[in-house]
Amino acid sequence: MEEYTHKGPVDCNKPINVAKLKGKTAIVTGGANGLGEAYVRALVAAGVEVCIGDPDIERGSKLEQELSGIKFIRCDVTKWSDQVYLFRQAVLFSSTGFISHVIANAGIHRQDEVFSYSGDDQEPEEPDLSVIDVNIRGTLYTAKLAAHYFIRQNGTHASQNQKDSCLVLIGSGAAFLDCPRGPQYSASKWAMRGIMHSLRRTTHFYGSRVNIISPW
């Protein structure tokens, strides 16, 4: 793995050299719609083989038919067995048998019952914490599986022979700015920062990196 030297902020106006991505394999959770779909399309355009994990069968299957070099796997990220299957299938799908990039994009945002008020004459009801389940539990499952495969591929002793691999976490501006009426979503995106800050201290041992993208 090549040594990385920090050179300051990235200039987004300059073209990005994606030549090194060609022929590699990536997993994108929540890749059938929205930003996840955009990531998939950009990776495919760069010559990357992409395995999509998403619960939306209709949209995922459509993308699989439309784009070459992708495989769709129905996946509920809150289910450990679904994600285990996703990673296994990605290895089988890969022409190299090597997973280089994992984008933990799956996430939801909905009306937050933690914030809602039941009423003066009502007892408080147990809130739906599905945002936490998908955004945090799902991402932790993805991060663990990514680390498992990266370590199995590269070992645990840093060397120049290790192949680069990367886990990308998808955060949000909600982890930097106040997000009224959405405590679960804000908490889940702050969690992405915490996961990144923790993992970045050890990923280099197995030739890997961890980054976070926070759309505003």
From TrEMBL:
Record flagged with keyword Oxidoreductase: yes
UniProt xrefs under Gene3D superfamilies: NAD(P)-binding Rossmann-like Domain (3.40.50.720)
InterPro entries: NAD(P)-bd_dom_sf, Sc_DH/Rdtase_CS, SDR_fam
GO MF annotation, one: oxidoreductase activity
Transmembrane stretches, start-end: none
Keyword annotations from UniProtKB, A to Z: NADP, Oxidoreductase
Entry similarity comment: Belongs to the short-chain dehydrogenases/reductases (SDR) family.
Name of the featured protein: Uncharacterized protein
